Amino acid sequence: MPIQSDTSTKTANVDRDPRLFTWFLTIVMVLMYVVALLEKPALRQSWYVIVFTILMAAHVFLHWQIEKIIISKKLTVGYIILQGIIAFLICWLAGHETIIFAIYMALLGETVGMLGLSKASLLPAIYYSVLAYLNLNQVVEIASLSWLIIGIIPVLFFVMSFTILYRRQVDAREQVQEIAAELEKANQQLSQYAAQVEDLTISNERQRMARELHDTLSQGLTGIILQLEAIEAHLSNERIDKAKAIVSNAKLQARAALADARNAIDDLRNTSVENLESALRLEISRFTSATDIPCELLMAEIPKLPKPLNEVVVRNVAEALTNIARHAQANKVKVEVSTETDKLMITIQDDGQGFDPAILPSGHYGVLGMQERVRLAGGEFEIKSQVGVGATIRMKIPL
After folding, report:
1. What is the pLDDT of residues 374-399, one digit of tens each?
2. What is the pLDDT of residues 263-301, one digit of tens each?
């Protein structure tokens, strides 16, 4: 991903910048080493040059370990003390004001870079300043030393300002790195959430298709299979007339199952319901035409609803009417749609034979599908029924 590549680039930059600063210090120390050997012939004697070289190497080596040292407060304090001692010895052996100036300016700048311009950096700054004063006192006269110190102050101010700006730049880049890492993590989480949503969408779609096809192909084919088995039994007993009668019924049931399957497929293709009242009247018209059972629609004035909510209402009403046609043996049906505060109220009532909701037969996916639709819309679903007194379905869905 692009975020990942940006993160790796920023990480490389943040890691590289302190190294560049250390390389700069190393080059300065090497130049000071050469200047000391050229300016002071005594340093070129065997034991002097060995000691001086070891001290310079140790000084540069400690600079290169700074990233490992600053993670611990104790190591940082030890580093400052040890570098001060080594710097004092180097300057004492070299006896050159340029070397003193370069080494202690570098240490002061490094201290501000490590600790910032705060109280924590005050003591190390005083410590290095005292050591620098002692080394300068060795090679410069007192009168000249005062003017030299006055001249050093602006240079010191420049070094510290540069170090502070440099430190802020590195901190800003580290923050960019952290933000990029967080964005990458968030991007990965979004990808995972998208995959989960896709899985849930597929699962919900499968359940929806199961709800739509239930009571069409499933029940229709089951009835046809039972009739075919009955035909086989009658034919084996040579009851031809009864077998023909059942064949006629099986053809009628097969056509009805095919029509129901086509309607279900049309419903799956046409999921958008523009006008709630028109869609409900169409479902009621189909129900009345197929069953000759009168159905009354009481439709109050309601605000325009979103298409998904219209779809939930229409599909549940259609499912309820289908169940009434197949199981209720009702004489009349009433569908009522109204609003109450911030909820849409839908009631489907029939005067059929009723049933016990507590012992709803297993595999009755029509009612299960109605409950799932209402639940996904954040609403409430309720069935009230008793054997012999009809059934009432109530749904409350937030607008």
Report:
1. 888 889 999 998 888 889 999 999 98
2. 666 665 554 566 888 889 888 887 887 778 899 999 988
Q: What whole-number distance in Å separates Cα of residue 205 and Cα of residue 271?
A: 12
In the Cβ-directed half-sphere of 51, how many Cα atoms lie within 13 Å?
14
Mean pLDDT over each residue of the chain, to the nearest integer: 77
* Residue 399, helix vs strand vs coil: coil
Distant-in-sequence, close-in-space partners of 55: CB < 8 Å, separation ≥ 6: 86, 89, 90, 93
Q: How crowded is the C-beta side of 293, counted as CA atoms within 13 Å? A: 26
What are 285's two structure tokens? Answer: 């018209």
**DSSP conformation letters of 199-211:** HHHHHHHHHHHHH
150-175 per-position pLDDT tens digit: 555 555 555 555 555 556 665 677 78
Q: For residues 70 and 111, is the Cβ–Cβ distance under 8 A?
A: no
Q: Are 44 and 71 in contact (CB under 8 A)?
A: no
Residues in the chain, how many?
A: 399
* Cα(320)–Cα(392) distance, integer angstroms: 10
Cβ count within 10 A of residue 319: 23
pLDDT at 5: 40
Q: In sequence order, what E strands does 264-325 have?
A: 295-299
Q: Residue holding tokens 């930059």? A: 13
